[in-house]
Amino acid sequence: MLSSNKPKKSAKKYFTLKEPTPVGIPTLVQQSMRSEEKSESRGLRFNLGFAELSYRGQGQFLYFYKRKGSLKSGVFNFDRRVALFTALIISLIAASATYGFWKKRQHAVALAIADTKSGIGGIGRLETGKIIDNPEEIMSNLVQMEEDEKIKDQLMGVIEDKSKEEKEANKETVQKLQYKVKRGDTLKSIARKYNIKPESISGSSRLNEYQDIKPGQTLSIPTRDGFYYVVKKNERLANILQAHKVTLDKFMAQNDSVNIDLLDVGEEIFLPGAKPIRKPETWFVPVPSRIITSHYGHRTFPRSAFHRGLDLKAFYISARAAKSGVVTYSGWLGGYGNAIIIKHDDTYKTLYGHLSKRLVSVGQHVRRGQVVGRTGDTGYSFGPHLHFEISRNGENVNPRKFLKGLRSRSKKR
């Protein structure tokens, strides 16, 4: 028989060989690892340190953990029933915690009024643990605690809230009194008599800041701090209150009859707690001649030096304050002879030198244009004139920058 050269058909493979599973690693873990190699984005993995959790989708979780040197694994299905059970457990825990905090709060309140020990603000009452059920005893303890709070506030310097009587008294509408000035009266003494501020009298009486009062003069005096304001043309209440920092509630408490929507020109309203707004004063030339005989700056006569002020032509006439202020010096001042220094505010001071006569004293308030002395030629002087200086924040400045209408001395004689 002739042998056939056709290749023999290979036997059918009914079995496939698989790689042996490493010892200690379950098949489920291998499948999980292969599936992760195919697509890392299929699920989420959480490493908890002692175990690892992998979410595979459709509520299925794979967990792995190591125990006694071998790796353990399993499958956990998180279906709707498990989700409802978990939510129920969380709700019960939250409700239990809330109830516990509420009971603890109620117990603390009961302890706070449980004892009659003396103390400030309840100190000592939290020590006994005694709970009082008698309503009368509870009320008596509450009254005692309020008294203790008052004592504590006094020790701490806390200002107590005004009593109902004081609040009712504050609701009373302010009244305007008329006072006739007597000899020896001052704004401060009158204000002290009525227990108000001097600005309340000067503002209500339309006085300037440093204006003197005279015997026989009639002043308007409010019964509380604040002043009576006269409404001007085109003024609105909102702008007036904002400028004087007064709230609408405080205003209405003292002006219940005022129509806040329509103010009449010349209408008088009361601004509680406010002070009159003073317009900035302009500078006043201290002598009427306005003629400069020696300028500010370096000069050679009568000696080579820097002249820190202006010499103004003034032949034994009145010298007046350039602005309102307080006299801080009145006396002999070396080469300046009789001199006066006036402090106008925290910024400016003025000096008046070579006076023949001084008419004001230290501490006296003077107003703008008031006569403070008489010019002359005392001290280091070569003829009657007024030496006038201005200092700003302690530094001399050229008075010509502040005084208007000054001119140099004519060359004609």
Helix-strand layout with pairing:
Elements: H1 27-38, E1 44-47, E2 51-57, E3 60-67, E4 70-77, H2 80-112, H3 135-156, H4 164-170, E5 176-180, H5 187-194, H6 198-204, E6 218-222, E7 226-230, H7 237-244, H8 248-254, E8 268-272, E9 291-294, E10 297-299, E11 305-307, E12 310-313, E13 318-320, E14 325-332, E15 338-343, E16 348-358, E17 365-366, E18 371-375, E19 385-392, E20 395-397, E21 407-408
Parallel strand pairs: 9-21
Antiparallel strand pairs: 1-2, 2-3, 3-4, 5-6, 7-8, 9-12, 10-11, 12-19, 13-18, 14-15, 14-17, 15-16, 16-18, 16-19, 19-20
Characterization of this structure:
With 413 residues, the protein is an alpha+beta fold. Among the domains are: 86-156, no CATH class; 176-272, LysM domain (Membrane-bound Lytic Murein Transglycosylase D, Chain A, Roll), CATH 3.10.350.10; 291-408, Distorted Sandwich (Glucose Permease (Domain IIA)). The chain contains eight helices and 21 strands. The strands form five sheets. Strands 9, 12, 13, 14, 15, 16, 17, 18, 19, 20 and 21 form an eleven-stranded mixed β-sheet that branches. A four-stranded antiparallel β-sheet has the order 1-2-3-4, with no helix packed on it. β14 (325-332) and β15 form a beta hairpin. It is elongated.
